[in-house]
Specification:
- The protein is built from two helices and eleven strands, in the order H-E-H-E-E-E-E-E-E-E-E-E-E.
- Strand 7 and strand 8 form a beta hairpin.
- By secondary structure, it is mainly beta.
- The chain is elongated, with a radius of gyration of 33 Å.
- Strands 1, 2, 3, 4, 5, 6, 7, 8, 9, 10 and 11 form an eleven-stranded antiparallel beta sheet that branches.
């Protein structure tokens, strides 16, 4: 009986000592603490490549058209550079160029030529300010000023004996806009890779949305008139045409960071 009592007392004392020691470890917060290495956050001097056209950029590119053809373009180059640990410069380049040419003899050795070239160029410089110091999630705000030009050229030439002519249609449209956004990106494991989401507002203004048409007949008489993209059948002796949009925007980004 005394042995059982002594055993119980020793067991209870051991449990109390163990509990006290365990309580001390939890209160100090050291024994179980360990560093979990997550992400590879960029700092001053680092570069980044990213993809992620926004909803408005995709819509804008897919709406690009001339009176000759409809064509598409996607962002080819998007880069980031960290001016400091919290300040990022970024720019995107969008390019697209399409050419078409047909030349031959038809019917009674009548020369026929049709050629066209459509081109689209846009640069989108911007800056972002990062706030979160953690190596897992990154919160930032930013702004950009995209600008570019759209060029359409069309030539139709017919050297027939009855009614030879040469016709051209040309358009040069300048465009400028503004983007403001707030972003959140999450670094993937221990890789220099981040997946992000950006939401904000963007707008674009397009100038010179008119087409200059020139026709040269067999007598050398030249006629020049203008049409618009929305109404290519109505000739104008003089016209000004512009359009634009403004609204909310959203993009999902995938970034890869590196240094020299």
């Amino acid at each position: 009986m005394k042995k059982n009592y002594l055993t119980k007392m020793l067991t209870a004392a051991f449990c109390v000592l163990f509990a006290a020691q365990a309580f001390g470890q939890i209160s100090n917060g050291n024994p179980l603490a360990r560093t979990i290495k997550t992400g590879n956050r960029p700092v001053k001097g680092d570069w980044g490549l990213f993809v992620g056209p926004s909803v408005n950029e995709i819509r804008d590119l897919m709406d690009k058209n001339s009176d000759i053809d409809t064509w598409y373009g996607l962002p080819l180059v998007n880069i980031k550079y960290f001016l400091s640990d919290k300040t990022e410069f970024r720019t995107g380049v969008q390019l697209c160029s399409k050419a078409y040419k047909t030349k031959g003899d038809i019917l009674d050795d009548k020369d026929y030529l049709v050629k066209s070239r459509d081109a689209y160029y846009r640069l989108s410089p911007g800056i972002a300010r990062h706030f979160s110091p953690t190596n897992i999630l990154d919160v930032y705000v930013g702004a950009a000023i995209p600008f570019g030009v759209t060029i359409d050229n069309y030539v139709s030439k017919y050297d027939g004996k009855t009614a030879p002519y040469t016709g051209t249609a040309k358009r040069t449209s300048l465009e400028v806009g503004f983007q403001a956004y707030i972003g959140l990106q999450c670094f993937v494991a221990d890789l220099p890779v981040a997946i992000g989401l950006e939401y904000g507002f963007s707008g674009m203004k397009y100038f010179g949305q008119k087409v200059k048409n020139t026709v040269l007949d067999a007598e050398g008489s030249e006629q020049t008139y203008y049409t618009t993209l929305d109404d290519p059948t109505t000739p104008y002796s003089k016209v000004k045409c512009s359009n634009g949009y403004f609204g909310s925007d959203l993009r999902v980004t995938l970034s890869y960071y590196f240094n020299k």
